[in-house]
Amino acid sequence: MKKFAANLIVVLAALWFIPLNSALATQITSSGDSALTGAAVIDFESQTLGTYTSLPIGGVTFTANDNHLRIDNTYSGVYGATGQYLDNGTYANNGFFGLTITFSSATSAFGFQWGMAETAAVWNLTAYNSSNTLLETYQLPNTDGSNVGAFVGLADNNISYATLINSSNTPLPGSGTYYDWISIDNFNYQPSAVPEPATMFLLGSGLLGLAGLRRKFRK
Q: Which whole-number Å values give the CA distances from 169 to 87, 112, 177, 179, in the listed order?
């Protein structure tokens, strides 16, 4: 019985950290996606205009893999951006070709307003868990001159971080990759759900009851 009880404790401890949501990896194409219900939103309005190497906001840190990122308002009201937004700036300003988005806690879904992506460039959004395992990759749409832009994102259990990479192989002078000035606004993110203590108590009570019945029948 002692061995059974010890095994039961191990099982309960493991279940405690399993998220309630079990959706498979999916692409998000709307801010109204159910995976983002109640999500926190970063609109970049309170950030100081200018360039950064890394920028922590709330539970998210945006880091330029190369060069810098920028908080800008040059194209406010067009390309799907409103007010201030995050971008990489012009090629002459040495903006990023890659961006890493790191979450301070496990996240089940995230998405953002995407704009200015040109047809000649290929941008891939990839999510990873805390073990650096690739969860899903989404080749983002080219919005070109659309003033609406597009909403893009990914949903999967326990996303730890994501990368946004310009993987185009169209060359430019001095660069092996086609440079593309893009914008990100209204960044939504949803922390992974964790079972409530009451739920785990009920589950544990049920398992202990079953253990008692098992012992009774063995007698």
A: 21, 25, 5, 10
* Of residues 155, 122, 134, 146, the one with CA closest to residue 30: 155
Give the gyration radius of the chain's Cα atoms: 22
Name the strand (E) or helix (H) holding 7: helix 2-16
Q: How far apart are CA 213 and CA 215, in angstroms?
A: 5
Query: What pLDDT is stored for residue 155 in this prediction?
Result: 97
Helix or strand (DSSP H, E) at 69: strand 69-72
Confidence of residue 193 (pLDDT cuts 50, 70, 90): confident
The dihedral over CA atoms of 95, 100, 105, 110, expressed in degrees to the nearest 10, equals 80
Residue 72 pLDDT > 70: yes
Instruction: Compute the average pLDDT of residues 110-128.
Output: 95
* Per-residue tokens: 142: 């080219």
Q: Which residues contact 127 (CB under 8 A, 6 or more apart)?
A: 25, 134, 135, 136, 137, 154, 156, 159, 161, 162
Q: Would the pTM of this model clear 0.85, i.e. be above it?
A: no
Q: In the structure encoding, which two tokens stand for residue 26, read together?
A: 């999916």
pLDDT at residue 36 tops 90:
yes
Helix (H) or strand (E) holding 202: helix 197-218
